[in-house]
Automatic annotation (TrEMBL):
InterPro entries: Acyl_CoA_acyltransferase, GH, Glyco_hydro_3_C_sf, Glyco_hydro_3_N, Glyco_hydro_3_N_sf, GNAT_dom, NagZ_Beta-hexosaminidase
Molecular function GO terms recorded: acyltransferase activity, transferring groups other than amino-acyl groups; hydrolase activity, hydrolyzing O-glycosyl compounds
Family: Belongs to the glycosyl hydrolase 3 family.
Designated name of the protein: Glycoside hydrolase family 3 protein
KW Aminoacyl-tRNA synthetase (keyword) present: no
Coiled coil residues, start to end: none
Residue ranges occupied by any Glycoside hydrolase family 3 N-terminal domain in the UniProt entry: 15-341
Transmembrane segments: none
Annotated keywords: Glycoprotein, Glycosidase, Hydrolase
Start and end residues of each N-acetyltransferase domain: 638-708
Species of provenance: Lophiostoma macrostomum CBS 122681
Gene Ontology biological-process annotations: carbohydrate metabolic process; peptidoglycan turnover
Length: 932
């Protein structure tokens, strides 16, 4: 499990130096204290934790980090300090500076945007800012899955309750942090997402899930993060109690740390313990004994937040453990190697003693300010607006009053780990004003007052603003509600602050009561805004207009004001599974859409195709019935193809697939297939795939038109229309996405069977002779020039590719040509192929015939030819003769105009196999692209 098993520098023979690297400690105040100086100089402390109580501004933080590193350097430390901080954004930012440090949405807010690209950008920007100040270790990302979302203190600090989504956004955060040069720490292993709280601060929250349950959900993001290069992991201090797994504190359990994390999940990075000063742990075990237990369990770094006496006790405990052989030197040095390897990735003395500071932050400020605004604008979610109260500007006249009701809320704790400690500090700190200022992004009253001012400025009308408490709806509230023409109520974690839930429902009841204004009875508009956990009223349909901001920073509430007054169209969606459990009128799940990887996804695509075929209604034929993963990948020089999947990254299963092609010679962008696992429909997987496909095609240079349905590959020629109800559903679905089905063109596949007993209709040969054309059958690329020039007279998508594929495969494909006798000019062509040809791989209906069959494809008749239908029938007649002569018993016409005169083809023995509607539109008209 050692990262670097090579021999260590002799300097580490000094055990005091070595042991110092295995501790991370914090201190009180915004300046160097004698205690932290002693820990660095005398005990060689290798890691420092900075929290909000240490950090006044970006400039002071840069100075503080430099001074800490200088002390370590002058004390002879071989390597710089690892300096860590909680900077999760949203309500949890240890470093705050109104000028230089930007505010970004919480993890759940970013997840609501649906964009892992945005997550990467925000993570990188966050890490760049703290790195500029000299911080090299970020305590993130939060990889907890909210399996019991409504009762958790974690709230919006994690991406939600869907392990796949938490993994996707966690990995994007990891990538962004690393890009900026800081090392990462996943937390809180093995998940704080389903804790049982017993009440007393001396009682430890308990994980009651079994290992099997954890593996199916909570452990998925941790496993994924490890695979994506997570540098460190914090193991929580919670208890675990289930069959086969009992631990008083996870971070002290060898079964959890060495067994589950190190061995089962193959984690080779640095493992950090929960803070050993937490009341339950220090009272039940003691810090000295806890240190020995944590090291023996497999922790590499022991965290002690602030009390100097406890920090000294921990150092003594580790020494005693070594001297008594309770801890082996091998374990100490294995941990040292991991710590040194981690530090080598994020720091050096050159870097540590020269933090970029304010000058660099000034250069970042413009782009990061724009990113912050974009991120918040993307996260705001309108969950419901049943009565159309948004935007309010449509309802309120300038002389009418708007009422804002906001809860009295405490600043959020800097992190779950330090909740009890932070409360103690808030109570005892001699400088409460400093705490309030440094944590101002978390203080509700100041931000809510500014929200009231912003609402008033935006509407040029009066806004009444008052707060509410656990005392409920008072007469003053009732009077203001009656006086106002519309009401906005803010809640912050109403599921845990139940008075907010009751207050809001009481206000809703008052607003729902009919009242008279100018003799007219109407409902008073009520907008409820959750400014923290979206779970407050997500399932409460009696709250008709419900918006989520995911945190109550000024930037978030600025975006909220824009949404309320119609300046910003909200694009956020509730993250996780909650939006799947109900029908949300304004919200749609945005799935992570990835590029199709042929090597990785081919087998999974075959399994998805099988699932779709098996899920087809009885009596209905599936267009995919003979398709395989190979049916969609063309590898043609003149076709740019991009295919997309929604998949489960743990099981590798595909939930949906979409193929797109850009035919450069015609400037046509095509969606050639879009299908979803039948068991996962109505979850917006298809929407997510479609949106990604359209956005990708729009970026193609010189794109002229869009087409739904593809001649090549010839799986879906358009919207399948074989059954009335299904046709109506699919037409409606695509129409809602922006396709104009009224402009569709019917196309179909046709088949002639019993070809071995077939004879041409009487008189058809005579008609063919009267057409006055000469026919021949040619094979191979030598004939390409005139044929490819001829087919340019048609601009149909995919024609050239079909002909080139046929010309390149003379053993299985041929071209029948019709020429004018007088000058030999081509006036008609058609492609012949059999089921051994490369072309047939992309035309599954041929294999669907389940017998020896040949195909006729892509007839092209020159414009102006008088005997168009006669010439077309002649080419097909000769093709049928040729296919019969090869011993085939069936013939496929793979792409025919569905509104043409079928009489001639019917008389030749053809019947319709599949019907489609090919939909096309000018690329310039495609302007309403749904948000990604």
């Amino acid at each position: 499990m050692m990262v670097k098993p090579e021999k260590l520098d002799p300097v580490w023979n000094d055990l005091d130096r070595t042991m110092g690297q295995l501790f991370m400690m914090g201190f009180d105040g915004t300046a160097i204290t004698p205690q932290i100086k002693t820990l660095i100089e005398k005990h060689y402390l290798g890691c420092i934790l900075l929290t909000a109580k240490n950090l006044k501004s970006a400039e002071d933080t840069t100075k503080l980090c430099y001074e800490l590193q200088k002390i370590a350097h002058d004390a002879g430390h071989p390597v710089p300090l690892a300096i860590g901080v909680d900077q999760e954004n949203g309500g949890v930012n240890s470093l705050f500076d109104e000028i230089y440090i930007r505010q970004y949405p919480s993890s759940m807010g970013i997840a609501a945007s649906g964009s892992t690209e945005l997550a990467f950008e925000v993570a990188k920007a966050t890490a760049q800012e703290i790195s500029a100040c000299g911080i090299n270790w970020i305590f993130g990302p939060c990889l907890d899955v909210l399996t019991n979302a409504r009762n958790q203190p974690l709230g919006v600090r994690t991406a939600g309750d869907d392990p796949q989504e938490v993994s996707a956004f966690g990995n994007a955060f990891i990538k962004g942090y690393k890009e900026a040069g800081v090392v990462t720490l996943g937390k809180h292993f093995p998940s704080y997402g389903n804790l049982e709280f017993l009440g007393s601060t001396l009682d430890v929250p308990i994980i009651t899930e079994s290992l099997e349950q954890l593996s199916l959900s909570a452990l998925i993001p941790f496993r994924s993060g490890i695979q994506n290069g997570l540098d460190a992991m914090m193991v929580g201090g919670c208890a675990m109690s289930s069959a086969g797994l009992n631990a008083m504190h996870a971070c002290l359990s060898e079964q959890v740390v060495d067994g589950l994390l190190r061995n089962d999940l193959n984690f080779n990075g640095v493992i950090v313990s929960e803070c050993l000063e937490m009341d339950a742990l220090s009272h039940n075990i003691g810090v000295g004994g806890g240190t020995v237990m944590a090291v023996n369990a497999g922790c590499d770094v022991i965290l002690l937040c602030r009390a100097f006496s406890m920090q000294q006790e921990a150092i003594r405990g580790l020494k005693t453990g070594l001297e008594s052989s309770m801890i082996s030197k091998e374990r100490i040095y294995n941990s040292l190697r991991r710590v040194l390897h981690m530090k080598s990735k994020c720091t050096s003395w050159e870097k540590a003693l020269n933090p970029p500071g304010i000058n660099y932050l000034e250069t970042l400020q413009p782009s990061h300010t724009a990113l912050s605004t974009r991120a918040y604008n993307s996260s705001i979610t309108v969950v419901r607006d049943k009565k159309g109260f948004l935007p309010l500007s449509n309802l309120l006249d300038s002389e009418e009053e708007l009422l804002l009701l906001t809860p009295l809320v405490k600043p959020l704790a800097a992190s779950a780990a330090f909740k009890a400690l932070s409360e103690t500090i808030t109570e005892k700190s001699p400088e409460p004003a400093a705490w309030e200022r440094s944590a101002s992004v978390m203080s509700g009253e100041r931000v809510f007052r500014e929200l009231g001012r912003s609402l008033a400025r935006q509407r040029s009308g009066r806004v009444l603003h008052t707060s509410y408490t656990a005392n409920g709806v008072r007469p003053v509230h009732e009077n203001l509600i009656n006086r106002a023409s519309a009401v906005i109520v803010l809640t912050a974690d109403a599921n845990r602050n139940l008075y907010q839930n009751g207050f809001t429902k009481h206000v809703a009841m008052i607003c729902n009561s009919n009242f008279t204004t100018g003799g007219e009875k109407r409902e008073k508009p009520l907008i409820v805004v959750s400014v923290s956990s979206p779970y407050d009223f997500a399932m409460e349909s009696t709250i008709g207009t419900y918006i989520c901001t995911y945190d109550f920073t000024e930037t978030a509430l600025n975006s909220l004001v824009k949404v309320i007054f119609g300046e910003l169209s909200p694009t956020g969606n509730l993250p996780g599974t909650i939006s799947k459990s109900q029908k949300l009128s304004h919200s749609r799940q945005h799935w992570l859409v990835e590029n199709f990887n042929e090597e990785r996804d081919a087998n999974a695509l075959d399994a998805l195709i099988t699932a779709v075929i098996e899920g087809t209604s009885p009596g209905q034929r599936s267009e995919l019935s003979s398709a395989t993963s190979n049916s969609f990948v063309l590898h043609q020089q003149d076709v740019e193809e991009s295919h997309f999947v929604v998949r489960n990254s743990s099981t590798q299963a595909l939930y949906g697939f979409c193929s797109t092609y850009f035919f450069k010679n015609t400037g046509t962008g095509v969606i050639g297939a879009l299908f979803v696992d039948p068991t996962r429909r109505k979850l917006s997987i298809g929407h997510s795939l479609h949106n990604r496909a359209i956005r990708t095609l729009l970026q193609k240079d010189k794109i002229k038109r869009f087409q739904l349905g593809s001649r090549l590959p010839s799986v879906f020629l358009g919207i399948p229309t074989g059954h009335g109800a299904e046709r109506k559903r699919l037409r409606s679905w695509f129409a809602n996405l922006g396709w104009n089905a009224a402009l569709s063109r019917p196309v179909c596949n046709m088949v002639a069977r019993n070809l071995l007993n077939w004879t041409p209709p009487e008189g058809m040969a005579k008609s063919l002779a009267s057409a006055g054309s000469q026919f021949d059958l040619v094979y191979g690329w030598d004939y390409a020039g005139p044929i490819l020039d001829h087919i340019k007279t048609s601009n149909r998508q995919g024609l050239a590719e079909v002909y080139k594929m046929a010309l390149a495969d003379p053993s299985s494909c041929g071209i029948i040509r019709a020429k004018r006798p007088e000058d030999g000019a081509l006036v008609g062509t058609v492609v012949l192929y059999n089921n051994h040809s490369h072309l047939s791989d992309f035309i599954p209906p041929l294999k669907d015939l389940n017998e020896a069959a040949g195909g006729i494809s892509s007839p092209v008749i020159s414009p102006g030819v008088g005997e168009y239908s006669t010439l077309l029938q002649g080419l097909i007649l000769l093709g049928m003769r040729q296919i019969k002569a090869q011993g085939c018993n069936a013939c496929l016409l793979d792409y025919m105009d569905g509104d043409g005169n079928f009489d001639g083809f019917t008389s030749m023995g053809f019947t319709v196999m599949h019907n489609f509607e090919e939909v096309s539109c000018d690329a310039a008209t495609w302007t309403m692209i749904p948000p990604s």
